[in-house]
Amino acid sequence: MTIHTGEKLYQCNQCDKSFSRKSNLTIHMRKHTGEKPHQCSKCEKAFALGRDLIRHMRMHTGEKPYQCNQCGKDFSSNCHLTIHMRSHTGEKPYQCNQCNKAFTQNCDLTNHMR
Prior knowledge:
Blueprint: H1 2-5, E1 10-11, E2 18-19, H2 22-33, E3 38-39, E4 46-47, H3 50-61, E5 66-67, E6 74-75, H4 78-89, E7 94-95, E8 102-103, H5 106-113
Antiparallel strand pairs: 1-2, 3-4, 5-6, 7-8
Protein name: C2H2-type domain-containing protein
GO molecular function: DNA-binding transcription factor activity, RNA polymerase II-specific; RNA polymerase II cis-regulatory region sequence-specific DNA binding; zinc ion binding
Subcellular location: Nucleus
């Protein structure tokens, strides 16, 4: 029921974050401990989250399950497809608060701000 009430019973003892599910706290604690229990069987990389290992494995297999419905280009992750789609829509959601120049990716804005 804590999901619906917004109540967060599980408090991190390392920082001020709290969670409504114990499993979310467990995953969060890996940021503090550095624990990476999900090991790639093809290389030396390890990951805190299983979903990150799944995404990483696509690099080894070449799998690209996400396809652009505009041009047919394939991508290994949904976030790369989302960024690519901005080349079709012209969307630039990251805007500089100094000069109002806009960017398709946050990292481009960060580089611009340096």
